[in-house]
Design brief:
The chain has 278 residues and is α/β, with parallel strands linked by helices. It has a single domain, classed as TIM Barrel, CATH 3.20.20. Helices cover 29% and strands 18% of the residues. A 7-stranded parallel beta sheet has the order 1-4-5-6-7-8-9. Strands 2-3 form a two-stranded antiparallel sheet. Strand 5, helix 6 and strand 6 form a beta-alpha-beta unit. The longest helix has 14 residues. The radius of gyration is 18 Å and the shape is globular. 40% of the residues are buried.
Length: 278
Amino acid sequence: MAVNSKIEWTDHTFNPWLGCTKVSPGCDNCYAESWSKRSGLVKWGSHARKRTTDAYWRGPLVWNSRAGDFARLHNRRQRVFCASLADVFDNQIDPAWRFDLFLLIKQCDQLDWLLLTKRPQNILKMLPPDWGRGYSNVWIGTTAEDQIRFDQRWPYLAAVPSLVRFISYEPAIGALRLNALGPPHPDWIITGGESGGRSRELDPQWIRDLISDCRGFGVAPFHKQWGTYGNNPLVREIGLSVADARARDPYGKGGGLLDGEIVRQFPIAGRILSRTAA
């Protein structure tokens, strides 16, 4: 439940509650399920959900109080990924928990909250009454591990008013192209291969093609990682050893270079900006 995150696209993670159920093939090797087995805090795949402690909920208030110091140091706002071990738009949780979460989000208005769900069909009916055109500090995204899931989920997310709407194409387990259902297109797409001992293969051309689509349609691309060095083009296509590839490309699990380039951009209030500060 790390709060200062090593995830490349966020600064903090916040889990208002714990627990989830699998909904599609991208969930097969879920890292959160592995975490739940190690921690014993919640039984994954059941209807059980566990709210985190009041002390833990005070964490974002502390980050918010230090927002000025962070902005002076990094020249940007802090990002909070919510939730890495749950789903904000899960219909198995007490609606009062979600109500409390949105109150906290409103209170912590100096943080940018990134709400990522596998259940975009639930978003509109679960937003707070004062959502309007969206909160100014909330980005909403959905996971899509392949074209089928993108075609299913993006239309639901596209209908949600939000400052930023994004796709997490991670784990990428099949090709995904943008031109099938657009416009509109997402504002931001995160790409990444699956990591871990049971990771599935990723064809680097899937990432090249999708990033080409992003650039053509004005979508900010963020290539997080290859997942394993077996997916990395330095190994898969050029034939370097894993050791040599790791030395040349240490950016993320399995490396993150795409044809010699780090591709990590963010959408900021309708503008695509390169990541210039950690």
